[in-house]
Amino acid sequence: MGKDPVCSGEVDERSPWSSTYQGKTYYFNSAECKADFDRDPAHFAAVAFADTAEESSRTREKGGQVASRARTKLRSMIGDGKGKAAERISSVSGAFRTVSQHLREQNQESMARYADKAAVNVEQLSGYLQQHDADQIISEAEDFVRRRPVLMAGGAFAAGFFMARFLKSSKSASA
Fold first, then answer.
1. Over the stretch 65-115, which tens digit does the pLDDT of each residue have?
2. Domain assignment present for 34
3. Are residues 15 and 28 in contact, defined by beta-carbon separation less than 8 angstroms?
4. Number of domains present in the structure of the chain
5. Do 78 and 56 form a contact (C-beta atoms < 8 A)?
6. Which of 148, 48, 130, 59 minimizes the C-alpha distance to 89?
7. I want to staple 15 with a disulfide (CB 3.0 to 4.6 A). Which of 10, 20, 27, 85 is the partner?
8. Is the pLDDT reported for residue 171 higher than 80?
9. What CA–CA distance (Å, rounded) separates 31 from 142?
10. Is residue 19 part of a domain?
11. Does 126 fall in a domain?
């Protein structure tokens, strides 16, 4: 569907009335609209271009508004959930420390070091969440994705794969 540049209505590109001006084909709702266009194609082509530019501007503005609302919602969700997430992550760190202690009691020092390292990394993540506000977290996540898009795509693929496996195994367990 297109727009009749003279009569301003929607027009099907299979319309029997059309004119070509400067390599672009314009379609019309009636023979009268086509005749008006043919008398002054430069004027009507400019009007059609202005209408297209205005529509494009409105679309960009609407997209910006949607992105702004999404960013505000994301900021709110991160702000609300980061304290709880930091607490839960901190408890995971404690679990890694407990595992490390048990591994040492069983004389598995090398595995215990891995558990210790995991505990330190998890504690750092918890500290990061506690020390940064939602805007900083979003900004740093955006920077990370821009710097390493392949890693992000691979992570998304892996997460999707594991989620599918989890859902599949959940279905099997409930059947």
1. 777 787 778 777 777 777 787 788 788 888 888 888 988 999 988 888 988
2. yes
3. yes
4. 1
5. no
6. 130
7. 27
8. no
9. 54
10. yes
11. no
